[in-house]
Amino acid sequence: MRVVITVLLGVTAGLVAMGHLGCSPTPSELPALEGGPQEAEAGKVVVTARWPEPSEESVSARLIPAASESILVELLAGSELLERVVIARPGGSVTFEAIPAAYITVRATARPGTDGTGVAQAAGDKQVRVLDGQTVQVALVLGSTVESIELSPTPIDLLAGEDLQVTATALNGAGEVVLVAPGAWQWLVANTDVAQVSSTGMLSGIFEGSTSLTVTETESGASASRAVGVSWGTADGVVTVNQGGVG
């Protein structure tokens, strides 16, 4: 799933000005523009972000993770942070003032906290060229940080007539838990004659046999599958039909 943030570069009036959170580099520290050294000019960077309306059903309109409450936007000259600002839901426009003329990296991460905190749910960056007196529009695309899904419990075995809550956890590449909206999970059982699953991951044993359970996090496309064994109960305990695993 992608987040599209519109970035306008240049002199733009009538938008909210944001103060510097860090020290700007001197002209000698800035990356050189094409054509050799030039005198550094000051420009503005205007960042606009919006959350889609809940009524929007188009996949292309669902641009920001549903569980995100803010987007943290950072401007960097090389490795040095120039400014940082948080755009909270439902979105809007902010202006970075007095940005020196240079190649600047605009970095954005969607976060679960309204103050720009929490493990990033989507991230992306783009290098832009700031020129005095010009306005440039750039589409910054954010990709989901979810890389894998963890299912619990494992293995998944239950009795016919029994219910079992299965839990899915989204993880990023560092193994950190990424918060996703409950509605982003899609559950599917391969053979509904053996077991059935609700939209919340409640698994119900129907008849003795084996099948598989798959869950997909729809905003990232990441998924995981596990084998499900359903057995009859006996006076001595549970007779397990399937102990195997899938995926």
Describe this structure in words.
The structure is a single chain. With 247 residues, the protein is an all-beta fold. It folds into two domains: 2-144, Immunoglobulin-like (Sandwich), CATH 2.60.40; 148-238, Immunoglobulin-like. It contains no helices and 20 strands. The model is unreliable at 7-33, 56-62 and 235-247 (pLDDT under 50).
CATH fold label of the largest domain: Immunoglobulin-like
Give the biggest beta sheet. 9 strands, mixed
Number of domains: 2
Derived from helix and strand composition plus strand pairing, the structural class reads: mainly beta
As a whole number of angstroms, the C-alpha radius of gyration is: 25 Å
Share of β-strand residues: over 45%
| Unreliable stretches | 7-33, 56-62, 235-247
- Can you identify the CATH superfamily of the largest domain? Immunoglobulins
Q: Which bin fits the share of residues in helices?
A: under 10%
Highest-level CATH class of the largest domain: Mainly Beta
For the largest sheet, list the strands in their spatial order.
Answer: 2-6-3-1-9-8-7-4-5
Based on the model shown, name its key terms.
4-stranded mixed beta sheet; mainly beta; 2 domains; 247 residues; disordered C terminus; Immunoglobulin-like; 9-stranded mixed beta sheet
Summed up, what is this model?
The chain is an all-beta fold.
Write the SSE topology.
Blueprint lengths: L1 E9 L6 E2 L23 E9 L19 E8 L2 E9 L2 E10 L2 E9 L10 E8 L6 E9 L3 E5 L3 E4 L3 E3 L1 E5 L13 E5 L5 E3 L4 E4 L3 E9 L5 E9 L1 E2 L2 E2 L9
Parallel strand pairs: 2-6, 11-18
Antiparallel strand pairs: 1-3, 1-9, 3-6, 4-5, 4-7, 7-8, 8-9, 10-13, 12-16, 14-17, 15-16, 17-18, 19-20
